[in-house]
């Protein structure tokens, strides 16, 4: 364990300052307590929408969820005849959407967002699916 460091505080005494490893341990403990459920929301959305996506000729692949990592995540790959989209969502709320047109030499587009609620997750995934459904019409 790292040695404890002290600094002069405004109370005239000394105040305890956490070492970086203690600070990380505290942060990790707090993150474990937080009932975010964003990764679980992706799994539920996928289960609920799989049949609808099949009807629109959109294949869906679920990669993960990961567990036991500093930042657990899940990735969904949505594949249509026109487009490939990979959506990665981390339990911390970060998300990345990579979109590529099949048969195009253009670079894929990448968008990042911070999701705060399970509703944000559902809205993002539904928006992606709707865009892909439009390709199939």
Describe the protein's architecture and organization.
The protein has 137 residues and is of the alpha+beta class. It has 2 domains: 1-34, no CATH class; 38-136, no CATH class. The chain has 3 helices and 7 strands. The protein has helices at residues 20-33, 38-55, 118-136; strands at residues 5-8, 14-17, 59-63, 73-79, 83-90, 94-101, 109-114. The strands form 2 sheets. The protein has a 5-stranded antiparallel beta sheet, with helices on one face. A two-stranded antiparallel ribbon has the order 1-2. α2 runs parallel beside α3. The longest helix is centred in the last third of the chain and has 19 residues, at 118-136.
Keywords:
two-stranded antiparallel sheet; 7 strands; globular; 137 residues; disordered N terminus; 37% helix; alpha+beta; five-stranded antiparallel sheet; single chain
Share in β-strands? 25-35%
Structural class: alpha+beta
Number of extended strands:
7
Helical residue percent? 25-40%
Strand order of the largest sheet: 3-4-5-6-7
Rg from C-alpha positions? Answer: 21 Å
Oligomeric state of the chains in view? single chain
What would the principal axes of the Cα set say about the shape?
globular
Supply the number of structural domains: 2
**Distance N terminus to C terminus?**
61 Å
Instruction: List low-confidence stretches.
Output: 1-19, 31-35
Element order, helices and strands? EEHHEEEEEH
Mean pLDDT: 78
What's the number of helices? Answer: 3
Largest sheet: 5 strands, antiparallel
